[in-house]
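User: Hey, quick favor. My workstation is busy. Could you predict this chain's structure for me?
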Amino acid sequence: MEGSKVIRIIGAGPAGLTAAINLAKNDYKVIVYEKNADVGMRFHDDFQGLENWSTEEDVLTSLETMSIKASFFCRPIQKGLLYGPSSKVQIESSKPLFYLIRRGKSHDTLDYSLKEQSLNLGVKIMFNTCAGEKDGEIIAIGPKKVCVIAIGMNFETDLEDSATVIFDDTVAPKGYAYLLVAERKATLASVLYKNFDEANQFFGKSLERFKSLLSFKIKNPTKFGGYGSFSIPRSAMQGGRMYVGESSGFQDFLFGFGIKYAIVSGYLSAKSIIEKVDYDTLWKKHFLQQLQASLSNRILYELFGHVQYDFLVKKTGSSKDPRKFWMRLYHNSIYKKFIYPFALLRYKLRDFKSRPVKHGSLLDKT
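Assistant: No problem, here it is.
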């Protein structure tokens, strides 16, 4: 393939822009089509976690390898509070468990940073342009189904920088609730894997639970909602097009961490073009086993409920290195390989019931 060939990417999220950056650095002409007026329009400058526990290599080192500069708000999180239905632990890791980042269109967000890095390399981004999937070589259009939702609130607060997570079906059915604080700004959310129609009620319960655990003030609150989807496709290609990020369902089944999968899959799609290597071969080699392990984790998490939540909390708290304990969770052991077919069947049935949505429609309901 000639370096002068124009590569068209549909979607200007982390997956699409990572692909664009790597292609541009290798002298390809790149056009990105984005239906919204700017990047990060799905988000509201809320705090999110860039997961750092599933692989030995630090995720920031991985980003550098993939030509991504960490020129965005990025705080290493090495300690935090975990609550189960009947347990509580303070954890601390020698290395970051995750990096606190911000998503949206503000200047310090991951999305804005990737946009600027792309533009500086000569990538052309066509905003307010609806292009069909058949118009691109790389498809990065985000989730197509609702398999998990998050409903939350950004606000100013008097709390110190902190990270607190609750695993309890009474505040987040089969999911979790979190409170992330940095520089007197906070994001509080409930992540639900079922009972979507009761999202507002569960958010209210999450808010009350956090207020009972931690005394804090709320100023200038702004509510938000979002959704995600999961799948493990046999192929992430269709009609010669490569599907990256959530458009192919690449996301951690257990807790929904998908930013790293988006970036890595975007990078691999570019690598496929540059090095003329099969895209399916690349992503399966890099993270198929992790995805499978996360699906097995999800089925165990759901089946054992509160018993499993307390087990995770207590085991994390008693581990000498919480990061290594969580890394082991994503190792595709013989036991997890055994239960994987059952987990896959369960989720195929659930995905069948998941309804396709237009971006933003879920936000209107929440």
